[in-house]
Amino acid sequence: MAVGKSIVLLCLAVALLAIGNGGVAARKLDKQSLGFYELRRGEFSMVVTNWGATILAVRIPDKNGHIDDVVLGYKDIGSYVNDTTYFGALVGRVANRIAGGRFTIKDHAYHTYRNDGNNTLHGGHRGFNQVFWTVRERVTGEFPHITFSYRSYDGEQGFPGNLDVLVTYKIDGDLSYSVTMYARPLDKPTPVNLAQHTYWNLRGHGSGHDVLGHAVQILASAVTPVAAGGGLIPTGAVAPVAGTPFDFRRPAAPGARIAEVEGGYDINYVLDGETDGQGVRKAAVVSEAASGRVLELWANQPGLQFYTGNFLKGDVGKGGAVYAKHAGLCLETQDFPDAVHEPGFPKEVYRPGQVYKHYMLYKFSIKK
């Protein structure tokens, strides 16, 4: 995707696209316009909104031709305001955790909003999932896509400098879509680590089945272990998965060994599959036998946070579905958590003139 043009910032979006019947309606939230946008190619479709650049639905047929929505989400947009589950959200300025809610760049200490105990999680209390994004471009046709833009201001949630951000959701084929994220610091060095926080249940979000029986493969031979005592802050080490419950190099059900993992799976994997010329590698494959659905994730980031919905506790979702613990799983490609404090981790600080790029490709297939 070309991004040579400068980002156009708009104060208000004036139209709301109502997906249900293709009509136009007006709905206001905090005096700005809220939009819902469907991208469709045949029977495959997805719905996104400019609130948090959030994915609200992904609909795909199963092996019997029945179409289901396979991502978790709330029944109304109001539930996304001040949401702490991050259903389908684009999270940042820094996804995952910053220990102590502080970091130093060029001997200058910055203090970010601590919203996860003593730590900053997913950009703070009002991260990128809690703001309106502007629709910069929308294209229909054979390969529909939509681009949202947001300018994060200097000092937002404690982060330094103004930052221009773009995300494009695009249907690339009959059963595939991509997410492309760009960020450009304008005037100060700043950490950047964006992530897409969709919860998947390939049986269907409202099926009533958890994801512990899904088959999961993660193409990584190591994880970044976390310190004891809670907080999920990496120790700075890189530990092999061989012989541990974290080994998903071959497809396995999370439920097989989840009892051996305190709290359930919520850890960063060090991806090490072979990359193409653009630095993109296969990161994970998830399949579900009853539906026949298979999800393959490709990305250009060094890490992947595998999370099994451990903190879900009866959240009421779309169509009245109730999301109990482990009702969905997340595959969040990312830089490593707390990289601002670990010089041995891949870099996370970008300077004016540098561009952050995060590319993800979701490829679905159906096993009959």
From TrEMBL:
Enzyme Commission number, as recorded: 5.1.3.3
Signal peptide segment: 1-26
Q: Which branch of life, at top level? A: Eukaryota
Report the GO molecular function annotations: aldose 1-epimerase activity
Could you list the residue ranges that cross the membrane? none
Q: Which CDD domains does the protein's record reference?
A: galactose_mutarotase_like
User: Where does the chain bind beta-D-galactose?
Assistant: 96-97, 197-199, 266
Annotated pathway? Carbohydrate metabolism; hexose metabolism
Query: Which SUPFAM superfamilies did the record assign?
Result: Galactose mutarotase-like (SSF74650)
The residues responsible for catalysis, as annotated, are: 197, 332
Catalytic activity from the UniProt record = alpha-D-glucose = beta-D-glucose
Task: Check the record and name the Pfam families matching this protein.
Answer: Aldose_epim
Q: Which UniProt keywords apply?
A: Carbohydrate metabolism, Isomerase, Signal
Family note: Belongs to the aldose epimerase family.
Which PANTHER family does this one have?
Answer: ALDOSE 1-EPIMERASE, ALDOSE-1-EPIMERASE
- Please state what the protein is called: Aldose 1-epimerase
